[in-house]
């Protein structure tokens, strides 16, 4: 019983430390015994088949991965095989990139931070950086995310400067990767595939709101789904 956190861990990165802590908080609260470990992105391509056999769920973590191809291959595997997957901050961005490349077949889909001159900038720089900001998120219903939160509004912490380009919002949403959470003016903040067991991405960092006494509902739901898949 293992969860793979896809990313290149740095003990100096608060969001990654918070990822470990939030998992411990939720596992302790739920009384569930599931191991978790970070998967270095540069190792994924060579070990992909072993990774597929080893992990029961994936968290696409925050951070700047060494290998985008490695990250996208894990996301594609989870999406196509109904494997529980959560993506936060950078994970939100790479979920969208994978969907654009492999579902919408946008061959040149790119991330502005890495390839600013690309012809299909699916992920672009936000008008205002959200690094260190806390903001309101409006949750649409019906959605799996609303069923998790059981409320139409939440306040979440952000540490990002990039998000889904407005040019591709309609195409992404209409094709099945639904935008189910936005800021008050409509900018995408949560995405999901409704028919998937658990396939949710948040531009915010829910793990920063997790404590021993107050775990985060999205992380609780992710862990519960992984456990249910093991039974």
From TrEMBL:
Q: Where is the Glutamine amidotransferase domain?
A: 20-223
Q: Which UniProt keywords apply?
A: ATP-binding, Glutamine amidotransferase, Ligase, Nucleotide-binding, Pyrimidine biosynthesis
Q: What is its EC number?
A: 6.3.4.2
Entries under Gene3D superfamilies matching the protein? 3.40.50.880
Query: Which reaction is catalysed here?
Result: UTP + L-glutamine + ATP + H2O = CTP + L-glutamate + ADP + phosphate + 2 H(+)
Keyword ATP-binding assigned to the entry: answer is yes
- Report the Pfam families cross-referenced here: GATase
Pathway assignment reads:
Pyrimidine metabolism; CTP biosynthesis via de novo pathway; CTP from UDP: step 2/2
Does Ligase show up as a keyword for this record?
yes
Enzyme class, top EC level, equals ligase
Q: Can you tell me which family this protein belongs to?
A: Belongs to the CTP synthase family.
The protein's name is CTP synthase (glutamine hydrolyzing)
